[in-house]
Design goal:
heterodimer; A: 405 residues; alpha+beta; two-stranded antiparallel sheet; 13 helices; 19% strand; B: 254 residues; alpha/beta; Rossmann fold; 6-stranded mixed β-sheet; 4-stranded antiparallel β-sheet; 8 helices
């Protein structure tokens, strides 16, 4: 019933000690600002990872060749050369739900055109690759299944390679010499930017895998096979079928380990986002500590304030204030300090992450929910840390309080 | 309506403090009646129990035994919040050290009891009421002054205005002139006498004989009991004295 005037009383008290109020709120401002900025950075990194995982394509299953151990030296994935072109053919033929398969071989080499040359990555793929990776061309056309069958000397290049080799010239239709074999550039890919590991994804030459095996890399082994499934619900089943198909084709007896590895996109995404989720959590927790420190600052100042204003509390009680009026007054003071600090902190935190993404090029992502949580949390800090001093004030005996020097 | 006009009625009031091992009997059986429009000075040396009695009269404290009827209602058994409401509605306090809120205007100090009152007033009503009471104690035009900008006498007048804002049954003054020089003390006494003329009941604690002489009745305490209760035979007139002092101080006119 007296809430309105209690608010007035609290605001007046805060205005009377401007400097102290500002400094106390500063603790919360820094705390909330840090939480907002840190969680923004963490979420930004997570969103970037997720976007890159999504750029692998939809409903994709990756099959890697196994590793070998010879004289104790293990070669890593793809080293065993256990995946053959025929394995990919079999998957294409026998696994239901498959909409695209791309046999992949990878190498790095020097490429040249005119008087320019450049060291880049060569990817051998099937014509399905551009659909599987959802990687459209900016200019020109991709190579065709016919090109793959005939191992034609054609290729598609990334933006970085194009700029390095051809400068401002249009690369489509030009000749690119790869290991002294002239390839015709049929198209330029749309730029993808950096990968999670900081690799330039546009520094690339993509050609039919047949051409790559025959004219550039040699050998008949695939590093991996990319498979796209039409319906997300069939991924699990398809993955199982691929495993049993390959085990059968590779004559692996029951009980023996696979000589290949199958991962679907979901698993890759989970592994990658788990890292960034832990990072977000850590950053948020560290920033949360500073918010708690800010709360302790409020408690400290409120305790000082209660002691300092003991006489005032006595006078208020003498003229008719209930204990609950005094309690509300001091609680409102604490909550006002913390929530005003919270609002300013949110503004500072958003500003800090904008500056970070503008100048340091860190991706940041600030969600409305993190702002709402930060605001509610700062209010809760006020109530939590303001309650003890406020209760202490409310419990004062008016006679003692009036006599306090 | 009250049967015999007693605003304050104490019936065999005791107050015992329990300080660990020792029991202190501060008030030991006080019975007292104070009627409407009386001006009583409560006197006694320190330790006589007058402060304890004053706290009971002001509903800041409860008697350990006995009854306290304020305006015909027994308030001796009320809880903290009910006592706070009684203080708000029926009692006005004036303290020795004024007890004004620092860095707060005279008007806001006077409005204070209204903030805790059950009646809802708009800001304009609060202001109007506070300004009217301030004018009645001679502080018209100083409503926006802070205590630090006012003299001791003026601060005590702000405190009196605060005591009067809710039209109390009783004004309780605890050594109201203790921190003031003799001339300002006379000014404050003039205000109390004037209020008393208007029918306001005043109870004042003092240890100074000449201040007690402005009251109509003196109650003297010793060792927790009333030693003497007598009407003031030769009552001092503060207003008259002020005129005399001002005459003496006035520069000689040719």
């Amino acid at each position: 019933m007296r809430v309105g005037s209690t608010f007035n009383v609290a605001f007046r008290a805060l205005r009377r000690n401007k400097m102290r109020s500002v400094l106390t709120a500063l603790g919360i401002i820094i705390g909330v600002g840090a939480v907002i900025a840190m969680v923004g950075i963490g979420n930004g990194a997570k969103a970037q990872v997720e976007a890159q995982i999504a750029s692998l394509g939809q409903n994709v299953i990756l099959i890697f060749s196994g590793s070998t151990t010879s004289s104790g030296i293990r070669t890593g994935w793809g080293g065993a050369g256990t995946l053959k072109v025929e394995d990919a053919e079999a998957i294409r033929r026998e696994v239901p739900g498959v909409v695209g398969v791309s046999e992949e071989v990878v190498s790095t080499t020097q490429v040249a055109a005119g008087n320019q040359n450049w060291f880049t990555r060569i990817y051998g793929e099937s014509a399905d690759y551009f659909d599987i990776r959802q990687w459209p061309l900016a200019d020109g056309a991709p190579f065709t299944p016919q090109d793959v069958r005939s191992a034609n000397k054609v290729c598609v290049i990334g933006r970085t390679t194009a700029t390095q080799v051809y400068g401002n010239e249009d690369p489509v239709g030009q000749i690119l010499r790869i290991k002294e074999v002239p390839f015709t550039v049929t198209g330029v890919l749309t730029p993808k930017g950096l990968s999670t590991q900081g690799m330039d994804q546009d520094d690339i030459v993509i050609m039919p895998y047949t051409s790559a095996m025959k004219r550039v890399i040699g050998g008949t082994n695939l590093r991996n096979i990319n498979v796209q499934i039409g319906d997300a619900r069939q991924i699990e089943a398809a993955q199982q079928q691929i495993i049993s198909l390959l085990r059968q084709r590779h004559n692996i007896r029951p009980g023996r380990d696979d000589d290949f590895t199958v991962r679907n996109q979901q698993e890759i995404a989970e592994a990658a986002t788990a890292t960034s989720r832990i990072m977000t959590l850590l950053l948020g927790a560290i920033a949360g500590v500073s918010l708690v420190v800010g709360g302790i600052g409020i408690m400290n100042i409120m305790l000082v304030s209660v002691t300092e204003r003991t006489r005032e509390i006595g006078v208020r009680m003498a003229v008719g204030a209930h204990g609950s009026d005094i309690l509300t007054q001091f609680l409102i003071e604490a909550v006002t300090l913390s929530s005003v600090g919270g609002v300013i902190g949110i503004i500072c935190g958003v500003g800090a992450s904008k500056i970070l993404s503008a100048y340091a090029h860190w991706p940041t992502l600030i969600s409305l929910s993190s702002i709402a949580i930060a605001f509610l949390f700062s209010g809760a800090v006020g109530i939590f840390f303001g309650f003890y001093p406020a209760r202490k004030a409310a419990a004062l005996d008016p006679i003692e309080a009036l006599r306090y020097e | 309506m009250n049967n015999n006009g007693a605003v304050v009625k104490l019936l065999d009031v005791h107050k015992t403090y329990n300080t660990g091992e020792m029991e202190v009997n501060a008030v030991r059986g006080v019975s007292l009646e104070i009627h409407r429009a009386e001006f009583v000075a409560l006197m006694g040396a320190s330790g006589s129990g007058k402060s304890t009695l004053m706290n009971i009269l002001g509903c800041l404290d409860r008697p350990t035994a006995g009854h306290y009827l304020l305006d015909d209602a027994d308030v001796s058994g009320l809880d903290r919040d009910r006592l706070a409401d009684i203080r708000n509605r029926k009692i006005g306090f004036v303290f020795q050290n004024f007890n004004l809120l620092p860095r707060t205007s005279a008007r806001e100090n006077v409005e204070l009891p209204l903030l805790y009152s059950a009646q809802r007033l708009t800001n304009a009503q609060l202001r109007e009421k506070a300004d009217r009471v301030l004018a009645s104690v001679g502080l018209g035009g100083r409503e926006d002054h802070h205590p630090s900008q006012l003299s001791g006498g003026q601060q005590q007048r702000v405190a009196i205005a605060r005591a009067l804002i809710n039209d109390p049954e009783v004004v309780l003054a605890d050594e109201p002139t203790g921190n003031l020089d003799s001339r300002t003390s006379v000014e404050i006494m003039a205000i109390f006498q004037q209020l008393n003329e208007r029918g306001i009941t005043v109870i004042m604690v003092t240890h100074e004989q000449d201040i007690a002489a402005y009251a109509r009745r003196n109650v003297i305490m010793r060792d927790g009991v009333i030693l003497e209760d007598r009407p003031v035979a030769r009552r001092a007139n503060a207003a008259g004295e002020l005129v005399r002092i001002q005459g003496a101080e006035a520069p000689p006119t040719l």
